[in-house]
Amino acid sequence: MIKTKAYAALTAKTQLVPYTFERRDPKEHDVVIDIKFSGICHSDIHTARDEWGNSPIFPLVPGHEIAGVVRSVGAKVTKYKVGDKVGVGCMVDSCRTCPQCKQDLEQYCDEGFTGTYGVPERDGSGSTQGGYSDVIVVNEDFVLRIPDNLPLDKAAPLLCAGITLYSPLTHWKAGPGVKVGIMGLGGLGHMGVKIASALGADVTVISHSEKKRDDATKLGAKNFIMTKEEDAFTKNANTFDLIINTISSADLDLASYLGLLKQDGTMVSVGVPDKPIALNVFALIMKRRTYAGSLIGGIKETQEMLDFCSKHNITPEIELINPSQVNEAYERVLKSDVRYRFVMDMSKL
Ligand code: NAP
Ligand code: ZN
Ligand code: ZN
Q1: Domain with 33 in it: what CATH number?
Q2: pTM, whole model, 2 decimals?
Q3: Containing structural domain, residue 204
């Protein structure tokens, strides 16, 4: 077994604390990864506090934005070798046989994919534990290659924030001539601005934080809508072809935001608040608008995203912290006070 240092939530009601546990010895197709950096996703907070009601298994080591270096490999691993720069995102396994898995859409696996933390391992050997730790053991099919020009600390957030925006932006064809709105300029949102801009789309940030106006332009957005301005929604009605909603709170008037879409426009929700959001159907039917959702991305698509970011030199804006600052970082994320992703230096564990 492999001794592992980590930060864990022991219960949904307590702060994260230092924690040690054991990982499995590598099986034939496993890669053992020394974790160098671990991003903090808002989903980590929702899960560590059991806000979604899906009862994760405690003690829980969160973290699904993992970047590191291969320490060792199992006897039959062909894709990676010792010393390779690699990443792990939100999934560590899936059934591999259903129609979705066969189409490289493991995130939509009929049996449910195996999340990187908080769920049972498929072989019944305990629960998965995530990246707020110094080492992880993952089947090679769920390991990503990090291109050489992407520094490991900045590569980490691509494994969730990056792919979660890349997937809907490419699926709904963001590109030249397409007006894209990004709702919420946080970890996910700021990757959306960078990726949509690189795809050639005309990007607007739709935010409730006036202090982020200047950053939006620096990140590549052409426009900024401050939703607290009285006429924000009337002045900008019928503007967008595509809106990606990254907002983590249910406390919003969805119909007003839907009104920003043109006829036949689509809003894709990727943000997952802790409560249901009420939807006034008139906001859809009056202009044949579509309301959709999207979940991370498949493994093949995640590699495509990493290669796209490498080619276009896209990396997140990060604030590098020590793992001991994780609880403080959670509070700042909740206040929309992060520019734009906390990444923990796991060598400081
Ligand atoms: P984040 O960094 O906290 O960003 C969320 C942003 O939402 C904030 O920066 C803020 O943007 C906006 N916001 C927060 N509270 C708001 C409120 N009361 N009213 C209006 N806007 C508000 O979080 P994140 O890590 O980007 O994650 C965002 C959401 O996506 C979370 O719910 C997370 O669980 C979910 N998620 C989903 C997937 C998926 O596959 N679908 C993957 C990863 C994460 P402004 O300050 O600019 O308004
Ligand atoms: Zn995430
Ligand atoms: Zn499957």
Answers
A1: 3.90.180.10
A2: 0.98
A3: 162-293
